[in-house]
Each structure stands twice: as structure tokens, then as C-alpha cells.
Amino acid sequence: xxxxLYLALMVGAMFLSLGLSAQRTVTGTVTDESGELLIxxxxxxxxxxxxxxxxLDGKYSIDVPGDDAxxxxxxxxxxxxxxxxxxxxxxxxxxxxDAESLDEVLITGYxxxxxxxxxxxIETLSLEDEPVAPxxxxxxxxxxxxxxxxxxxxxxxxxEGMNFQIRGAFSFTAGAEPLYVVDGMPLSGDISFLNPNxxxxxxxxxxxxxxxxxxSRAANGVVLVQTKSAxxxxxxxxxxxxxxxxTVPDSRRLDMMNAREYAQFQKEIAEMNGRPVNEAFQxxxxxxxxxxxxxxxxxTGAIQSYNLTLGTSxxxxxxxxxxxxxxQEGVIVNTGFERMNLRLNSRFRASDRLTIGLNVAPxxxxxxxxxxDGWPYVTENVLSSALITSPLASPYNDDxxxxxxxxxxxxxxxxxxxRVSEEKVYEDRNLQLLSNAFLEFEIAExxxxxxxxxxxxxxxxxxxxxxSTIGVLFAPPPSIPSGSDNxxxxxxxxxxxxxxxxxxxxxxxxxxLAGFTAQRFRLDGTLVSATNFPDDKIEAPVAAGQTLVTSNxxxxxxxxxxxxxxxxxxxxxxxxxxxxxxxxSRFGSNNRWGNFPAVSAGWVLSEESFWNVKPISFMxxxxxxxxxxxxxxxxxxxxxxxxxxxxxFGSGVASGRAPNNLGDQNLGWENNRQxxxxxxxHLFNDRIQLAYNYYSRNAxxxxxxxxxxxSSGFSNIQTNIxxxxxxxxEFSAFAKVAQSKDFSWDANFNISFDRNRTEALAxxxxxxxxxxxxxxxxxxxSVVGQxxxxxxxxxxxxxxxxxxxxxxxxxxxxxxxGTVKFRDLNGDGVITFPEDMTTIGSPWPDFTFGMTNNFRxxxxxxFVAVAGSYGNDVxxxxxxxxxxxxxxxxxxxxxxNRWKSEDDPGDGQYGSxxxxxxxxxxxxxxxxxxxxxxxxxxxxxxxxYNIPAGFSNFLQRAQVYVSAQNPFIFTNYPGPNPExxxxxxxxxxxxxxxxxxxxxxxxxSYPVPRSISFGVNIGF
Amino acid sequence: MLNQENPFDMNKRIxxxxxxxxxxxxxCENFLEITPEASVTIENFYESESDFVQAVxxxxxxxRDLYEEDWxxxxxxxxxxxxxxxxxxxxxxxxxxxxxxxxxxxNVTVFNKWANNYLIISRANQILGTIDEVDFAQSSKDDLxxxxxxxxxxxxxxLVRHFGGVPLFLEPPTSYETTFRDxxxxxxxxxxxxxxxxxxxxxxxxxGNQAVGRATSGAANALLGHVYLRLGQWADAETALSNAEDDxxxxxxxxxxxxxxxxxxxxxxxxxxxYVEGASxxxxxxxxxxxxxxxxxxxxxxxxxxxxxxxxxxxxxPTPEMLAAYEDGDFRLAASVGFYxxxxxxxxVTYENTPYIKKYQHPHLIGGQTGQNWIVxxxxxxxxxxxxxxxxxxxxxxxxxxxxxxxxxxxxxxxxAGTQSELREAILQERxxxxxxxxxxxxDLVRAGRAVxxxxxxxxxxxxxxxxxxxxxxxGPLPGAFQVDQTRxxxxxxxxxxxxNPALNQNPGY
Lengths: 1020, 510
Fold this sequence. Notes:
The complex is a heterodimer.
Chain A: H1 2-19, E1 24-32, E2 42-45, E3 51-53, E4 59-64, E5 70-74, E6 81-84, E7 93-95, E8 105-107, E9 112-114, E10 122-126, H2 138-142, E11 149-153, E12 162-166, E13 179-182, E14 185-186, E15 199-205, H3 208-211, E16 222-227, E17 236-247, H4 259-272, H5 293-297, E18 301-313, E19 317-329, E20 336-349, E21 354-367, H6 382-387, E22 405-406, E23 414-415, H7 417-423, E24 425-444, E25 447-466, E26 482-505, E27 508-531, E28 546-569, E29 573-584, E30 593-604, E31 616-630, E32 641-649, E33 652-661, E34 670-683, E35 688-700, E36 703-707, E37 716-720, E38 722-739, E39 743-761, E40 767-774, E41 777-783, E42 790-794, E43 796-799, H8 803-808, E44 820-822, E45 837-841, E46 847-857, E47 860-870, E48 873-876, H9 879-882, H10 919-923, E49 930-932, E50 935-946, E51 957-971, E52 1001-1002, E53 1010-1019
Parallel strand pairs in A: 1-7, 13-16, 48-52
Antiparallel strand pairs in A: 1-4, 2-3, 2-5, 5-6, 8-9, 10-15, 11-12, 13-14, 15-16, 17-18, 17-53, 18-19, 19-20, 20-21, 21-24, 22-23, 24-25, 25-26, 26-27, 27-28, 28-29, 29-30, 30-31, 31-34, 32-33, 34-35, 35-38, 36-37, 38-39, 39-46, 40-41, 41-42, 42-45, 43-44, 46-47, 47-50, 48-49, 50-51, 51-53
Chain B: H1 7-26, H2 28-32, E1 40-41, H3 49-60, H4 62-73, E2 81-82, H5 93-100, H6 108-130, H7 138-163, H8 186-203, H9 217-231, H10 234-245, E3 269-273, H11 287-291, H12 299-302, E4 317-318, H13 320-325, H14 331-336, E5 337-343, E6 350-357, E7 374-378, H15 379-392, H16 396-409, H17 420-434, H18 441-447, H19 451-464, H20 495-500
Antiparallel strand pairs in B: 2-4, 3-7, 5-6
């Protein structure tokens, strides 16, 4: 295919030269402002399709018909330049850099604007001039790059784990994720399936003026992704590949006891409780390190990617095709992620007035990421379970085969977690199609009508089988095999119809948009749970002794009207007003429709005639105010519904029905009013660019599934329940610190200070408990007048060091000398819960920041990206099982410093191993579980080398690089990943985990590896 | 550059897309009305006989979860049973707390009882609030209404006995505000129970005319009698229980056969909670495995393989005083209690003639699940309650007759008690062995006003010699265990309810 394209080019060039042989040939050299030769610059003869490309010496040669010929020079990352040939035969040009240039064109939601005209708060990232970094997911590109946009890697699970948070967004409901829009289509789900190589730019709309045209779902911001389309006059063939290795560095592991320390620990427990010491623990010195289960469970994983992009453009037709293959072996054995993407973006200019576009992008992903994250109790979460397995047990039998169980006399036999990882069958296959089509017609001068049809559809299957050789904590193998087969199919379609008028009257320019959209989503899911298989031979549910089938049908629809008015006077005074009216099926007929207006204005001071502050080449002040909405609730929660329940009369089972949801017909939209002021200042001819924003957002009529007393027969109701406030400052600075022929240095820095507060709550108690349930107490509490969702628990005050201390201090009925001491907050002399619990910490950082530096020396390029956060707390929930003092699990090495006797009181963190007293310090939320989560992470270091001219005639450009992802994390946080957050898919049972959105909780999640890759980028 | 063609064509180019836009404006609202396809809405329910039949079935459903755990808050709390202490697994501590009188306000079993009873009440309220408006056969309507009333009465009786006064919901809530209700007094709740049970007794058919497992007039009368006994209204109790007596129940000849799953719904059973094994909707009972000593492979006792270790087993283990309560020659001992000798996976424990509850152990097909039902009321219970009612009214002779009927079935001679107070003791004792492990003992002690005295004595025996009560060497009950006073006769309101509704007052002593 490459060959035939090349052939076509040669033939075309031949024809051209034949036809125009009577004309003259113009040659020249193209350089950039530092004098550097530019290779691959597209030179187009205006008004024709005749073009040329600069070679490895920056030289081009093109035939022109006459003196009035105009040559158009375009190059990635540079401002385009048009030059009239005149009577010259040599035309040398210098192209200006385009980095965040004011004429850079931005896609800002239903509109294309120049950067200088924007009145809202926007961040952009253009990937055209990026070295293609070896990252698996789009989110990794954005870490630390944009002020006010936090991209956290919650988990190192291959293909997953990126969590976006714009301006400290938080919601009590399903999540605070922004709306993801790809090529104009608001997606269902997130963007982790996208191939980063398909993306041309990413724009983040942070305030309502920018996001208002997505009104109802834009409360948490909007992430717009634009995929690659061909540049006029250029044909490109790019091939990118990289191969690398990932490992978990020692610094990112929790420090557990080794075999000798553990045996000593067990011996001391038995002695303290007056029990005979089991012979396995009588002589701890005989043991060495024992089994390090984390090592056994982790490995070096390979990561590789191959990508081919073809693009061609002619006067009538553009086509860009991208095909990619990505494979990441997870660092935990038997986990991994594989992705195949294909994308075809085409555009057809049928006539001067009519343009038709079609994008088709199928994606197939396959992962084997069985449950690794979360607590260990009666679940398959291998990480926490393996970490607490006895170091005396080996995963291998003497003959080298995998053992069935792993335990010692003090613990119950548990599964061999290495075997569980290797033999658990988990296959998640996901086939998705994303497709956009549009038709744009110019009805009259300046008046364009556009209609789009977009669809996102998919089919996902998760197949699991648990053979008899695996089990869970407390229930080791051999076990009765079970399995499940989960199929979901969904579609999401969107139709948009807009009318746009652009006109200029003297110095006044206006741009008016009106439109109407409809969107519908439907998901059908079938889950087959199969149990009581007779053996491991057949894994399909047909072999099961007992199967249970459940269905899940979800559907929602949205209708919207939108309008926008943009006005500019002489490029100095800017004004935008917009409105969107949305109706959603998720609300009762009383409250179905919501109106979301926004207004913004800007003043480009530097355009004023009085402006003569020399160094400041551009200064713009802007302000905006708008209302956006949030409708992330269940599809039918406004309805009172009943579901199936069963009761066995006699020997049969009878089907009955019972109410399972208390609906609220008055349920309405959550409203967010946001105000933003900002300034953009450019100095020294755009060499230094500064931006500042202050925002203030009020979220009212908060949607929340609030708990009600179970004496009503229900446990919660979805209702509008309160008001939250968010505000903050954002600064960003960009500078071309050094610029010369041999050396240049671009630096980019951003920092945000985000704050929040609970303004009002309509709950009966005036407070709102949320978060993880531990023995009936929730981990977070929101109190009016204080930051939202603070951690709530008892205050850890050391231990009762001796009898005197014990006698003189308030106690809990189960307390004894040496056990944990909590502070008596209500002064009543006894420790009770929740009376002696209070807000003990906050998951919100004081500030977050990011910095990137790009150094270029001759043909070498060094890119370093850093991101960090300061002042947030993390709730180390893993202390509950990894600090268990009963000797039933392996524990953190720090437990060696616990209270052992009045003469040896330890460091006051862990208490006595006296039987019956140990549950308090682990089963009640308390401040010992809070750790400082501040961190500074070097996200990416990439060293690349541009292979110089003359290497090959075929290659236009070639680059080789070595890149490290997440090479260094600087933090005091003891756990493996300070960016951790708990996902809402915890296990069921008495201590339910993860209720709603619980930021900053560590339940032992998949470690974030350090990876090093070698790659090559080639352009033909 | 305008094309010089028919201007009408150009208009067409505008008109068509605009009209399309316009038309779509008008089909708006239908597009936004979506009804769920995997569940029914309340607007479409409670409208026909079939709907109420399903709703009543739904009202029975929480009974299964309720009675899987009821023994933890009743039998375990009495002097009939205790547990084998598992040093390694402290996850069972909340269950142990129930037996040691060290219950905290966040106890999960206490919460489950509260929540499950209110599920029954709320579902019954939905039915009772709508059934009268719908037109269908009166006999069917009476039957369904009676069942809802019986279940509501059973649920409130369970709540008031365990918690004292509780929020009295008689209508379903419709909004956030109406889900909050203050506690009623215990008297108010008892009045409601009596009213509901009386009404149910009048509406329900008797056992011969009712499907297996459903409430009958006999069940409603047995419940009514039980409530009156608790309230000390002896004459009313006697009336209700006599009505139950007349419904054709008999004492089976063989005590053990009462509990056999093959004998489900036999003539001695007045009301039982149903379970069935092997159903895909998980309708089985697992409590028989909780009553077995914890074993790596329970098949050594049950004979059913394959079976996983019955973690959380060794509970409700008969105490030495329970074993001693059986008189010589009592057939019921062999039927109720088994003994096991063997190794234990528990740290520091070996089983040497360790007793376990045998009356619920029967052959079944699948390891870990049984179809064993839980009997709530049976005829022997009715007779002994009648005896108690009559004895308290001074009719000791007639009362004795009932006691002797029960004793005769057990292979024992007539009771030696003669006076009212002697018979009172004898009835308490007879209930202990006849209804052993059927969750009656704790409430009998409370009703007799003897709970504090008996359990304090029991506690001092356990503290004095823990190894007799299945603690491994070097272990014993928590300090603070068995401090029994009047406040411990009821349980604490679940703390999560109070966190959500601070207007609720906690029970004293918690």
C-alpha cells in the first residue's frame, strides 16, 4: 500500500512538471526563527493542488505559472505563511513558531475560535508537535500539563486507572468525572479505549462560558478530543513503535514482616496470651527472609505498541487512517491489556458549499485484569490477600509445582495466591465502534447549516471461571468451581442540527449559532452466574449444576435546544452569550427541563490605542458567568419501582414482587452557578505567556442518594439535598527560556489552589455521612461550613503505656493496659462511638502543580514532565488487615514496634496483642490510619534523537528515543501509590466498601510501575 | 458564488432541513418518556388480584434472612447454648457479643433484625393500604389481607420484644420527610400487634384450607396467645390459644420426625419459615452448618460431599446445664443433641464428645445448603402456652394435663408438680427441653422475670470455669462479659439509624 501511494505521487509529480514545463521553477530554503532548517514543510501553489515538500536540507523546488503565483507554506507547529513569488526564482522563507500562538485555532464546543478571541477558561494540548510518548492511555499525556486539571493514576491496572478531576470537582453521586466529547460526540464511558496516536488535540473547557453548550452535563467540565485529520496539500505516512519493560520499584512496596520477624511475632503473641508456642514459631532464628509474596506475585512486564498513520489530502478529498496495536503485560502475573484500534477519518468537499465527513473507528480491547484491588475478606483481591499471607509458606511444593494452599499453624490455610493469579480465568473482551458523520452546507454567504449523526456502540463480554484449585481467604481450595458470563451490549446515538451565521459589518463581527440535538442511550445486559460445577474440565456455564440469570436494561434520552451569540469589535471587545435547554428522561415530568445560560466578555487591552507597555505584547482580561447542570443519577431513580423477590412454599419457589426504590417525582436537575475571571498576558512577543483564573462555583439542589432510616422499609432515596461551594485560583506560565540554533529550552509551569465547602444540607441530621462502611460507621462526613467529605473517626492518642496511665484515662469497655488509647472528645469519661469521633483529616490538597521542560541541543531533545500535590491526606484503610494484632495474618513490619509490656511500650502506634482487645484500633476509623498524601512525581523523562539529513532518501524524518514513565515518586506516603483513590466496586458483606465517590482511600490498589521503553518514530 | 439556477430549488434547500428540524420539535415529550424494562413501577402495580398475590409472596421473603440469624439474639443469649471460641477468627466477635452481653450499638446482627422486620412491615403496609380499593373475590381478598396482617403483627412483635418501643409505620412513606418517624411506646406497639393478629385470625383460613407454608388462623391465634401471655392477660391468652387448639393439630408420635424436611408441613406445625435447597434463586438455609462444630470437612458428620469448611460454625453449642436439664429416659435428648469426637481446625481445640444441635441435621444433596425449615410455632408450644395461661389463672389441674401430654410423647411420666408455683417452674423447665434450640428460652426467661438472675449465675459459672464452656486453655470470656441487668433485656437501636435520625433516643445502658 505504501508503494502504490509512492508510485501515485511520482506519477502525479511527473504530470505536473510536464504540464507546466513552460513555466519557471522557484526554489528556496525554509527555516524557523532560530535559523534551523525545516524539513517536510508543505509548499502549495495557491489555487492548485500542485505542491512540494522541503527536503532534508530544508530546500524545496516548485514550478510556478507566473509572477502573481502565491506559495503557501504550512508546517506543523508553525504559523502558515503565504508569499507572492513576484519575479524571484529563489524564495527563502522563515516560519514563526505556533506554540500557543494567538491565532491558533481551537475547537471549543460547537465552534472554532482563535485563541485570542476566547473569553472562557480553556486549556489545550496539541499533540501535533509532541514527541509521541510511549503511554498507554490518553490521560497519561495530560498529567501535570494543565492548570486546574488533575489527572490521577489511581491504579496501575493495565489500560485503566486514570481519573480526571477539573477544578477540584466532587460530587456525592456516581462520580465527578468531566464529560468526554470525541469529535463532537459526548461519550458514554471514559476515553481509556482511545489510541493516543489518533488524537490531534485535547481541549479542556473549565468554566460555564466555555462549557455552556454542553449545559446539562458540563458541571464538572468538558474534555474535548479531536482526532487527526489530514492537512491540506500534504501526504503523510508515519510509523511509530516502541517496546519497553515495566517493574515495580522497591520504594513502591509496603514493608511487611519477613519470616524471621513473623515467627518472632507469633511467638510473642502466644506468650502474651498464655498459650503454648507452636513448634513452628519456637525458634525464629532458623528462618531467613522466607517468602516475599509481593515479589512472587509481581513480574517484569513488557509493553509495546505499533502504530501506522496514513494521511492524504486533495482539493476534494481528505483521508486519514490510523491503525494501532498496543499490548501491556501487567506487573502482576497474568494481568494484561491488549488493544487494537483502527480509525478512518474522511472528508469530502462535494462542491464549494457542501462538505461531507465520515469518521469510523472500531476498537477491540482484551484484558485479563481480574480483581486485584480492594480488601481481602472473602474476595479474590489478590494483592491484599497475598501481602497478608504467611512468609513461612511457599507458593511452590518441594517438587516445584504450585502449592494448593499457603498458611501456617496460626493462620487458617488460605489459597496460594500465586496459583490464584495464574489459574483464575478472567477474560474481558470489548468491541466498540465510534462513528461520526456530518453534512455541512453553506446556504448563503456566512450562513451554514450542519447536521451530524454520531454513534457509539459496543459489545462487552466478561467471562470468569474459578477452578477448584483456587479459593478465597477463610475458604481455601479445593473448592467447588463456579463462574460467570456477563454480556452487555449498548448503543449511544446523537443527532445534532445547527445553523450558523458569521458576518462582519465594518469593525463588528458576529457569529450566531442555533441548534437542536437529540441523544439516546440503551444498554442490555445479561449476567449468568454459574455454581456447582462438577469439575474443572468444562468452564462454560452449561456444565454448571446451578445457574442464575439476571438482566439489566438501562435507557436514557436527552433533547436539547442551544443557541450562542458571539460579538467582537475590532478584535478588542469580545462578548459571548449562550443558552442551552435540556430535557432528560431521568427526571419526573414536573422537572424534566433545565435551562443553562452563560455570558462572558473579554477585553484585549493590548489592542487599545493607548497601550504602550512595551514588554507586554498581548493582554486580555476576561470574565464569565454561567449555569451548568449535572444529571448523573440512575436512569429510573425518580420512579418508585418494584423488583422480583422469591419465597419457597413447599418444594417450589414462588415469585413475588416488592418495592425496591422510593421515587421522587419532584427530583430535578442539579444546578451549578460558576463565575470566572481571568487574565492572559504575553510578554516579549509571546516568548513568555502567563494566564490566571479565579473561579467560584455553587452547586445547588445537589443530587444525592441520601440514606433514610431503614425503619421506613427503604435504605435511601434519590433527592436534591444541599449546596456545595467550590472556588480557587489557577496560574500557568509558559516561557521559551532559551532559543538559539543549537540549544532551546521551553518551560511550562502551572499551579492551582482549589477549595470547597459544604454550604447547606437538607438531611435530617444536618450532616451527610458518606464513604466506606466499617462496622456501621462511614469514613467521611460533610458538615455545613466545613470542607466537603472530610475523614471522620476517632483521635488516636497512643496506647495506655502502663497501669497508671490506664487508670487515669478514659477507656472503652474492651480496653486494657497496652491497648489503643483514643481521645475522649465529649468528656464523659468513656470512649464510645460515634460520640468520640470527629473530623480528622481532609482528602483535598492545599495545591496541585505541574511542570514540563523541553530541552533541545542540536538533534537531541530531552523532555521532563513533573506533577505534584501538597497537603492532602490519604486514609490507609489497609491498616485494618495489615495491622491485625491477632496473629492471623502477616503484618506490616512496623508492628514490631508495638506495645509489648510496661517496660517496652514501643512507639505508640500499635497496641497490645492481648486477645479480645485488638479489634478497636483496626475496626474503628481513627487518625492513625491517616497519612500525608503529598507527592511530587516525575511522570515522564524522554530523551530523543532526530536522525539528521542524509540517512535515507525515503525517510522524511526519523527519531529514536528512550523514555521512562513514572520513574520517580517523592513522597512521605508509605503506601505504593499516593494518587490512590477507591473505586466504587468493592465487595459486599457486613463491611460494605466504597459507597459513592470516596476520594483518598487506599485499599491496596494495583501498583503504578516504572517503565522504560525504546521507540522509533518514522515519517515517509 | 450563487448558482444561477431555479431559486425555488434554493428555497427547497433551506426548507427541507428546517422542516425536518421543526417536525422533530413536536415529537419531543414521547422521546423523553422511558419506562424501565427490568422492573415494574408502582403506578402499574397493586391493581389486580395477581398483583396482590405477588406482593404477599414478597412480604414473606425477608423471613428467610430473619430466621437464619434469629437464634443469635435469642438462643445464644440464653443458658441453653454457648459457642466454641475461635482464637484465630475474630470476625465472629460481634456474634459472640450477643451471647456475652457485650453488644455494641453497631452490631450487624442487631441491625439485620431491625432492617428485615421493617422490610416485612413496609411491604405489608403497601398491600393493606391498597387492597380494599381493588375488586376481586372476597375469600381471596380476606386470605391475602389476613396474611399481610399476620406478617406485620409477627414483625412488630419481634421488634418490640427485642428493642422496646419502635417507630410505628402503618402506611408506606412517599417522600424523604415521611421516612422519618419517632419511636412509639412499647404499649402502643403491643396494641397494634394485638389488633393486627386478631384481625388476621378472623380473616385467615385454617390449616386444612391453606397452602403449605402460609399463615393460617391457627398461626394467628398462636401468635395472639403468645402476645397476651407476654402482656400478662391470661384469660385473653387462653381464648386465643384454645381457638388454635381446635384447628386440628396433633402431637406427632415421633419427636424427631417433626423436624424432618420430608415431613414438611406436618400436623404439628402451626407456622414455619420455609427454605428449599438447590434453587437458583438461593432459597436454602445454612444454619444447620453453623450449629455443627467447625470442621475442615463437615461431611464427617453430614455425609454430604463435597463440602467446604463451615467457617463461623461451632455456634449455638449446647451447654452442660442444657444437657443436664434432660431427665433420664427423655427421648428428646437423643433427637436434639449429638456428640462428636475428632480433630478441630480451630487453634487449641480438640473435640471430645463435644455436643452439637442434632435436631436440624438431616440428609441433603448439596454441601453447605439445606432445605431445613425453621419452626416458629408448633402444637407442643401451643399446649405449653395454654398450660401457662391456665396455671396463672389458678386452673392448675387442667394446666397439668397439657404438660403431661407433652411429657408423654417424650417418654416421660407425668409431672410431679402440684402447686401453682411448682407447676410454673415445671412449665418453664418443660419448655426448655421440649422447645430446645427453637429460640424460645431467652424470651421465656424474660417473660418469667428470671432472665437477670439466671444469666448472671450462668455468667459466673462460665467465668469460673471457661474450659467447661468450650474455651481453649488460657482463654475465657472478655472482661465485662455477663454484666446483666434490667437494661440488657432489650437490645440497642442500631447506631446507623440514630446517625441518620438523631431524634431517635437510644435505649438506656447503651
